[in-house]
Write a structure and sequence with these properties.
The structure is a homodimer. Chain A is of the alpha+beta class. In chain A, 17% of the residues lie in helices and 43% in strands. The first copy, chain A, has 6 helices and 27 strands. A 9-stranded antiparallel β-sheet of chain A has the order 10-6-2-3-4-18-17-16-11. A 9-stranded antiparallel β-sheet of chain A has the order 15-12-13-14-27-26-25-19-23. Chain A is elongated and about 80 Å long. Chain A starts with a strand and ends in a 7-residue tail after the last strand. β9 of chain A pairs antiparallel with β22 (300-307) of chain B, so a sheet runs across the interface. Chains A, B: GO terms for molecular function: 3'-5' exonuclease activity; DNA binding; DNA-directed DNA polymerase activity. Chains A, B: Forms a ring-shaped head-to-tail homodimer around DNA. Chains A, B: This is Beta sliding clamp. Chains A, B: Pfam families: DNA_pol3_beta (PF00712), DNA_pol3_beta_2 (PF02767), DNA_pol3_beta_3 (PF02768).
Chain lengths: 368, 368
Amino acid sequence: MKVSCTKNDLLNSVNIVLKAVSSRTTLPILECILLETDQNALKLTGNDLELGIESTIPATVEKSGCIALEAKIFSEIVRKLPEDEVKITVDANLMATIKCANSEFKISAQSGADFPELPKIERDKSITLKQSTLKDMIRQTIFSVATEETRPILTGELIQIKNGALHMVSVDGYRVSYRKTPLSVENEENEVVVPGKTLGEISKIFSSEEEDQVSIYFTDKHILFDLGDSTVVSRLLEGEFLKYENSFSEDYETRITVDRKALLMSIERAALISREGKKNPIKMEMDSDRLVITSNTELGTAHEELPVNLEGKDLMIAFNPKYLIDALKVIDDDEVAILFMSSLNPCIIQPVNGNEYKYLILPIRLNV
Amino acid sequence: MKVSCTKNDLLNSVNIVLKAVSSRTTLPILECILLETDQNALKLTGNDLELGIESTIPATVEKSGCIALEAKIFSEIVRKLPEDEVKITVDANLMATIKCANSEFKISAQSGADFPELPKIERDKSITLKQSTLKDMIRQTIFSVATEETRPILTGELIQIKNGALHMVSVDGYRVSYRKTPLSVENEENEVVVPGKTLGEISKIFSSEEEDQVSIYFTDKHILFDLGDSTVVSRLLEGEFLKYENSFSEDYETRITVDRKALLMSIERAALISREGKKNPIKMEMDSDRLVITSNTELGTAHEELPVNLEGKDLMIAFNPKYLIDALKVIDDDEVAILFMSSLNPCIIQPVNGNEYKYLILPIRLNV
């Protein structure tokens, strides 16, 4: 192999595919990045068998080839190279030479033939949306993906195409995050469960350009995200996801509207006193125009007051403050509405305007 | 006690004294911040018995007092308070109430009488210089303070007042960092050894204002830094420091001048290949106009070339790359001179212009 490209293209591409490189694995080839020449292009691939990422950059190919380089040392070298043209040559003994200005590295390569191919995805059923929108949807839901493996299906997010919209849902047993966004063309109904890890990694490589799009393709076993220069393929999770639709009832006995940021700050302060573990809830008491938040532990007490608009009954209810904070941090709107049925039923948090985001959270039973 | 001040003053002050609060100690009172009222002022103190910091802010004192609050929870509360006036009240049962806008916290306090006083320092022998200069001097020397406790005196830096200048020196057995700065007034000769930890913490609280000064007072056992609103008192280390003066000879057999940043980048790249431990040196070969840096380990090889001006003999020498990198990072000048005697003697790195900074480093013997 003999190929050259710019340092910046190469670094950019290495940083993208690194997100799919295993750091600890029993299969050493998975700790490598695959380099494969194409016509006027160099394709890099990382693959941990669950998640695979390909990224293609312009290159001058003097001699085609396909080899694998240990990702850690290769990425460190590329990161430190001067900003110049990089020449990569691999000889018959699989010795790779990386040359750039007055720097030259030699490291040993492995045959590309041993690198596991990415699954071939038939590009059939697909949807297209802005990368920035999908990034937002992930940000607003990923924090309530289950981390425990007791119900493996909940370590992923449900992605539904239904009624002209894309819906994303995550559930960890204590709360449900829901976000939808309308799709510009009518699409066939579909639903899959994507590992939380895949969504976390992919949201890091989404472009910040307002106009950049991502196309998503589905098969029974896999999902493929096409970002233009990069392609991400992930395994899907198998199993039955929670039926979330009925959880988000519009009924309430008490409804408050409140300034999101003021509420967030008050809960964060009250949470300081309950930091000693999840067993210390914060208590919320609300009447017609006032919400009082209190926390009381061996550390001391906190007392917070803030103005609200209340419709319906006065209420006292208690929550794990972390679960409230998580949601209030990802909502972009200035004002939120919170809907309650009773102190024993879940409440629903949503922006006052719009129905694209909803969050459900279970209360903690107070020992009164 | 009943006192009020602004949230921003209080937070600033808490952040300063926190640097002297013990996180792990057998004496729980040392995990506290002492709050002491003065006339129209509130004084905060942290003290871990080696290092003590006082910081004073303007305050309205309605009732004087002196109490200690657990530093972790108190600092977390102050950090999260709204930007408003903060009222601190402590009742006869040592219950402290912290009020700010619509937030109110109650945490228990301890009697200030149990808090260890800072040593009384007689303000006699002193020098004054810019905070920014002392911060620079610390940055350029602190990295070669010994971390191992085999020779406790070397875990500190030598501070000398001699010949109208302030000199700072640190030594860790492999290298010596030296920095001096002229003093504007003639001062009595003096020398003390200050714990590296003290210098590390104090350099974080130095102001970035160009004109802010620090006065330094010495006794046999202590050093005091007066920053205006804050005072830092530290124990000195006892013992004989290394006689460093003769190490920095001006003699050489080989002298090169080289672009500092280019050399730093080349060494950082070559070090990638020798990362597997200190036993892998980088090799430097220099002749009249060229420096070749190589590294060769089981990971591969690196080869770097860069232009230099050489006076004297050609030379081959090897170093632990980290020790070169540390010095090249803290020198501010564009060009450095490196003086060698032989491949077995230490070399000296210094800016081409000026003699305020010098760095000595021992080579690694090559098995040729």
